[in-house]
Fold this sequence. Notes:
The protein is built from 15 helices and 27 strands. By secondary structure, it is an alpha/beta fold. It has two domains: 7-233 and 475-496, P-loop containing nucleotide triphosphate hydrolases (Rossmann fold); 249-458, Rossmann fold (3-Layer(aba) Sandwich). α1 (19-32) packs parallel to α2 and α5 (174-184) runs parallel beside α7.
Amino acid sequence: MTTPAPVLMVLGTASSAGKSVLVTALCRIARQDGLRVAPFKAQNMSNNADVTPDGGEIGRAQSEQAAAAGIVPTVEMNPVLLKPQGDRTSQVVVNGHAEGILRSVDFLERKHDLWPHVERALASLRSQYELVIAEGAGSPAEPNLRAGDIVNMRVALHANATVLLVGDIDRGGVFAHLVGTMELLAPEERALVRGFVINRFRGDPSLLAPAIEDLERRTGVPVLGVVPYLDHLRVAQEDAVALERADPVPNEVGAVDIAVMRLPRIANFDDFDPLAAEPGVRVRYVARPEDLGDPALIIIPGTKATIADLDALRANGLADAITERAQRGTPVLGICGGYQMLGERLADPHGAEAAPGTEVAGLGLLPLDTTFAADKITRRATGTVLASHGPWSAAGSAVEGYEIHMGRTEPLPGAQIVPLLMLGEHEDGAVRADGLVAGCYLHGLFHNEGFRHALLRALGWPGPGATPAFDRAREFDRLAQHVRSHLDIERINAMLFPDVTVEATRG
């Protein structure tokens, strides 16, 4: 029988310690070093999701980690996905397929039934690859969550994993967090923690020497790296907390100003990373009408709870501000849930997102109605742009991306609109007769350079000049080099492969 691949597990002292990005970096490093590596997260709670080639839904972070590893994402990389949608409820996705909505308290009971799915998924990956890099969730040391754990130390113990414990020094208290986490772990769990990583450090690392010596003396665990904060990283993140910690957006004179609505349940916000990466383009996330200003383009992004987030836009005044700007001639684009909001009416007869039978008025900027169905559409898509008027006029440009939605959107009788895209054999999206308002279901639209550049030029952008276009592979390599320079990769490899020398690729 073939020996299962070793598991390197990245745990954090708290949520948003940088686990997802570190796993992305380690996947890229392992690939550079010639290893067949796969990411894994038993249970993810995130509204940032992606679609595998066979139509399964997984966390966006695991899809990004797979891309960094140079492999195709599969549902085994994230067998359980929770998509929060408010009122302490989440949609539960198991092995890529939605299995209904559960309250938080009910999910604790459901976890007992989900562990076999986790076991099978991890075993499958360990049989196919030479290394699996697993990611935990939140903190592994929460006593109230220990009994229902299927993502942290239960996975580590099951796989006899080599565990790295990551602490975020940027938020302060990192040494207390590391020591406290170790104290709360059971002895057999502590034995699996082979190294600490201090993440997001700003300053002179030599100043940490006394504290690191004390930490190692107290715990017997070495610090394997102090990873500095990395500015302007364009790698998909797990959840919207990343937006709260984002680098300030410079107010570049003459830049094309794009305002993305900061919805309470925003989803798949990495859709806009390629826009933000372009020189001469400023992407802002706006949560209040007084911050909207007069942008060149307003975008309403995807969301896990369209009706609830539309109510939030109305409550905080942004709905009126968006409508007023559209009447003054500002282009408005909706993606997925944002596209649904632009219509005349949204109905949820089956309770897919809201109470069964809920109907609300949309923003009225597109002559469309959306009805939420009981089943979800999840698919990869390729096609071309159909629009030939308005700033979206890039007719014939190739596009690819993915769809994740429960809504079905149809034009009203006699509606004066044209489709925005042709995806395979079906049309997607709509452009209003005057060309100023448009929307579609395709996530990843701006990752298509032809469409992105045509839109930006229509908004007054002079072009990229000598700066290369957004390059996902280049971002992975930049991240990998940054982490490799500050983390003891050779020592980690020795822990994982004690009888094998893994040659590091430095070029």
